[in-house]
């Protein structure tokens, strides 16, 4: 029986707690394929769960979804330089989203005449021999290393995982030449104990005592404090601490570009959500005398102005405190600056606990007036959401029903989920709705940590692969009411995002690994975001009055039926419907059609355990 460095690599992954490996095999992996088949043939099973992924970006997105749900790293295996390149924007998402993932790629053999086992024997081995393969992804990785020998392979893997799981968490990249990975080893190397016991992640850091006291004192003395966050909810312990501190101080909270559920929508001091389009920030920002910015990428855009022409940024006299769990200076960003009086690196849950303990709880009574004022702002925000979700009582002047809007569709989805009896703990919404990005965090009304999440990056094409990974991760992490996995995973995407997600690969994987999820497509007929970007710079230019197809951002006039892509890719297993407000079905009005279609889609996923796709046509760009 032959064992190789590849055998040791797979053994090490299993020994240190990796359960799922998302793979796209190539000519650099003979030893791995041989080892996996040896395990199956001799043991009846494999030590790792191998998830075959026909596309690399989908593979890394699936690992991303798995890691976000479980809090544990997954592994991805791809093919030399070309597979590394094909990871594409998912690399950016894993980096910006601070997701721990171990990526391995083989590399072309370095011998050409059979000097070693694994020498070049295919023409592609010359084509794929590049000078510096890891440089393709190095600036996005927390760590890169070459496996040069089986002797220290377990050390390299454990160091990579130790770094990946320490703040700021993120992806790591390992690579090895084929001759090295095909090198025969003694079986005794596979019998040694390999654990992470002496390779722990770095413990969460705290604020210096003086910093905690300074922030607490400023918040206590503030007349108009404000807290802004984006992803504090990734740390579930921080979710409860944020709730507690906000209630003690009647502290209003505003979310910018969220990538996690940070606070219950019903929280009386949550005053809004924005993706920082001009005029959408909270007016509290301009009048705040103390601003606490915690776990966030972009708190405000300095040049943005409100409807009255005033800049949407803090007053010059405001005290600004910045706290980030891993990278408060954003070292991975070329230019980034928030004017601040204090910048701290500290775990959000630990920092908020320190601040809360430094605050005199007896001040709560004195803050009743501010609490009431902030509650009214919260109630007004909720009323705006409800108004946006409503359907017009009378038809438009043309006599035709108005096109569906994103808030109406999200409200229908929320209603259908609640009516289905699915528990909050068993529900996960993955949001990648591009120009409607901020809306699911409002209209889906999440209440518990982890209920709604996004990639944390900006490269579209994450949601479908992430859905597959999230369903798998939910089973591992005992999610849901019964502890057997999520009852419903739903992705909300735009039509452009849907195509970026490589749906043929994603839905093939869903069928192969029985990972049912719902996809709701907000179909506006193209890429709205580039059009909005153009209008932001050239509001009155030639393109300002052009329709999407004229502007080359539209997908018309003959748009695909996206739902049927899923049906075809899954061999007929997935269920799909396309609906439009102006196409009556069985005499139903637009609202009835929307509600019944989405309710049926939820039923398909939760009861029949199949994928469902609802392609909802909005007003065309």
UniProtKB/TrEMBL annotation:
InterPro entries reported for this sequence: DHS-like_NAD/FAD-binding_dom, THDP-binding, Thiamin_PyroP_enz_TPP-bd_dom, TPP_enz, TPP_enzyme_TPP-bd
Superkingdom assignment: Eukaryota
GO biological process, one term: isoleucine biosynthetic process
Keyword terms: Mitochondrion, Thiamine pyrophosphate
MF (Gene Ontology): acetolactate synthase activity; flavin adenine dinucleotide binding; thiamine pyrophosphate binding
Compartments it resides in: Mitochondrion
GO CC entries: acetolactate synthase complex; mitochondrion
Residue intervals of the Thiamine pyrophosphate enzyme TPP-binding domain: 449-615
Domain Thiamine pyrophosphate enzyme N-terminal TPP-binding residue range list: 4-133
Family from the record: Belongs to the TPP enzyme family.
Protein name as annotated: Pyruvate decarboxylase
Organism whose genome encodes this protein: Paxillus involutus ATCC 200175
């Amino acid at each position: 029986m032959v064992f190789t460095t590849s055998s040791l690599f797979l053994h090490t992954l299993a020994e240190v707690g990796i359960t799922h490996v998302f793979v796209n095999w190539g000519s650099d992996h003979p030893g791995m394929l041989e080892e996996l088949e040896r395990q199956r043939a001799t043991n009846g099973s494999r030590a790792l769960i191998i998830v075959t992924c026909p596309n690399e970006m989908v593979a890394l997105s699936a690992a991303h979804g798995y890691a976000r749900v479980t809090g544990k790293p997954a592994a991805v295996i791809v093919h030399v330089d070309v597979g590394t390149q094909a990871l594409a924007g998912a690399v950016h998402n894993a980096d910006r989203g601070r997701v721990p993932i171990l990526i391995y790629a083989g590399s072309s053999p370095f011998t050409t005449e059979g000097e070693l086992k694994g020498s070049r024997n295919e023409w592609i081995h010359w084509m794929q021999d590049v000078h510096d393969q890891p440089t393709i992804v190095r600036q996005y990785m927390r760590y890169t290393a070459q496996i040069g020998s089986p002797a220290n392979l377990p050390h390299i893997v454990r160091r990579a995982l130790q770094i990946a799981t320490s703040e700021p968490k993120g992806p790591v990249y390992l690579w090895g030449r084929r001759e090295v990975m095909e090198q025969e080893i003694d079986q005794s190397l596979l019998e040694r104990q390999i654990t992470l016991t002496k390779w722990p992640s770095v413990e969460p850091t705290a604020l210096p005592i003086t910093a905690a006291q300074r922030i607490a004192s400023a918040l206590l003395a503030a007349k108009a404090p404000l807290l802004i966050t984006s992803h504090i909810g990734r740390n579930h312990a921080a979710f409860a601490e944020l709730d507690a501190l906000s209630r003690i101080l009647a502290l209003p909270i505003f979310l910018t570009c969220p990538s996690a559920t940070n606070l219950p929508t019903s929280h009386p001091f949550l005053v809004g959500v924005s993706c920082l389009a001009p005029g959408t920030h909270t007016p509290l920002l301009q009048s705040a005398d103390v601003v606490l910015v915690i776990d966030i990428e972009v708190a405000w855009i300095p040049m943005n102005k409100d409807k009255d022409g005033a800049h949407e940024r803090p007053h010059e006299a405001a005290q600004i405190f910045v706290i980030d769990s891993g990278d408060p200076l954003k070292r991975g960003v070329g230019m980034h600056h928030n004017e601040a009086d204090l910048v701290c690196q500290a775990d959000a849950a630990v920092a908020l606990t320190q601040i809360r303990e430094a605050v005199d709880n007896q001040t709560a009574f004195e803050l009743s007036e501010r609490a009431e004022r902030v509650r009214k702002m919260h109630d007004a925000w909720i009323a705006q959401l409800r108004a946006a979700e409503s359907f017009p009582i009378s038809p438009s002047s043309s006599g035709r029903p108005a096109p569906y809007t994103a808030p109406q569709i999200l409200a229908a989805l929320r209603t259908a989920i609640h009516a289905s009896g699915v528990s909050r703990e068993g529900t996960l919404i993955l949001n990648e709705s591009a120009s409607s990005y901020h809306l699911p965090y409002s209209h889906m009304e999440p209440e518990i940590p982890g209920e709604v999440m996004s990639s944390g990056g900006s490269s579209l094409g994450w949601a479908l692969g992430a859905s597959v990974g999230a369903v798998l991760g939910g089973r591992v992490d005992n999610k849901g009411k019964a502890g057997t996995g999520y009852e419903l995973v739903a992705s909300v995407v735009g039509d452009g995002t849907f195509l970026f997600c490589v749906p043929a690969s994603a839905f093939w994987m869903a069928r192969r690994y029985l990972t049912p999820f719902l996809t709701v497509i907000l179909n506006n007929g193209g890429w709205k975001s580039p059009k909005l970007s153009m209008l932001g710079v050239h509001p009155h230019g030639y393109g300002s009055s052009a329709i999407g197809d004229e502007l080359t951002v539209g997908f018309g006039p003959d748009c695909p039926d996206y739902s049927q892509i899923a049906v075809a890719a899954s061999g007929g297993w997935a269920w799909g419907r396309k609906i439009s407000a102006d196409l009556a079905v069985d005499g139903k009005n637009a609202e009835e059609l929307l509600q019944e279609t989405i309710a049926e889609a939820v039923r398909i996923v939760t009861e029949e355990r199949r994928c469902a796709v609802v392609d909802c046509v909005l007003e065309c760009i």
